[in-house]
UniProtKB/TrEMBL annotation:
Membrane-topology descriptor: Multi-pass membrane protein
UniProt protein name: Putative ABC transport system permease protein
Protein family membership: Belongs to the UPF0014 family.
Pfam entry (one): UPF0014
Coiled-coil annotated residue ranges, if any: none
GO cellular component, one term: plasma membrane
Main subcellular location of this protein, as a coarse class: membrane
Transmembrane segments: 6-21, 33-52, 58-77, 89-111, 117-138, 186-204, 210-234
Top-level taxonomic group: Bacteria
Subcellular location: Membrane
Keyword annotations from UniProtKB, A to Z: Membrane, Transmembrane, Transmembrane helix
Alphabetized PANTHER family for the sequence: PROTEIN ALUMINUM SENSITIVE 3, UPF0014 INNER MEMBRANE PROTEIN YBBM-RELATED
Length: 249
């Protein structure tokens, strides 16, 4: 792809701007800011990754993974404002999802701990887990506020905080995991995912690209599951005091 071809694709952004302006949606500013940020951020990260890949240092690679998790946790935690210790919950939910998943891939020999392999893979893991965790925090907050009276009745009848919140936790986990499960169901039929498409465009035979994409699909559903369960169960506990009482909103 030439630089001119890339620049011409901005016409698609102009189309989005026109549609927003025509129907008075009011998203013109957000679209422009998003477009500019995308170009700047990707350009900067391109130079950084080039340096990191050439450096091939285990400590620098690990530091970058940690920064990815931290930034994702900050974004995800915004969906759970008002939840006690939300930053800590978000960080460890995403961290454990990444560590368990990446650890399994390393143990199975599917990848090596090299920046060119673990950074792109970790980006996919953390990104998907972040979205799922955001859904968890948002749903937890809304359900605990909306069903507060129901929970208090259960507590008065002798239920523990865990028992009183079980239905909310299950509903939250289900809602957060369904997008990843549905995405996996449609692989190869409705969508050709980014990693597979990129490998094919790079010249890798489709049959080999499929193997990597299957690995990614399994990896993502595993990481999302871990992060969602930790976020849901730990997050639900923060709505109760140490005396099994529901906290005031």
């Amino acid at each position: 792809m030439t630089n001119l071809s890339l620049a011409m694709t901005f016409a698609l952004v102009l189309l989005a701007l026109y549609l927003s302006y025509k129907d008075k949606i009011g998203l013109e500013k957000d679209i422009m800011i998003g477009s500019v940020r995308a170009v700047l951020q990707l350009t900067v990260i391109g130079f950084i990754l080039t340096y990191v890949f050439d450096l091939n240092n285990i400590f620098v690679t690990t530091l970058i993974l940690g920064l990815m998790v931290y930034n994702a946790a900050v974004v995800s935690a915004k969906r759970g404002r008002g939840i006690y210790h939300i930053q800590r919950i978000a960080f460890f939910a995403l961290l454990f999802g990444l560590v368990i998943t990446l650890g399994a891939l390393l143990a199975f020999g599917a990848v090596e701990y090299q920046p060119s392999q673990v950074i792109p893979i970790s980006g996919m893991v953390v990104g998907n887990s972040m979205i799922a965790a955001s859904l968890v925090f948002n749903n937890l907050r809304e359900n605990f506020l909306r069903r507060r009276e129901e929970i208090e009745i259960k507590l008065c009848l002798g239920a523990t905080s865990r028992e009183a919140a079980t239905s909310i936790i299950r509903q939250t986990i289900r809602s957060a995991m369904l997008p990843s499960i549905d995405s996996m169901k449609t692989l190869g039929i409705v969508q050709l995912p980014g990693m597979m498409t990129g490998l094919i465009l790079a010249g890798l035979p489709p049959t080999d690209a499929i193997k990597y994409q299957i690995m990614v699909a399994f990896m993502l559903v595993g990481a999302v599951s871990v992060s969602v369960f930790i976020a849901a169960y730990w997050g639900s506990k923060s709505f109760f005091t140490e005396f099994e009482q529901l906290r005031q909103p």
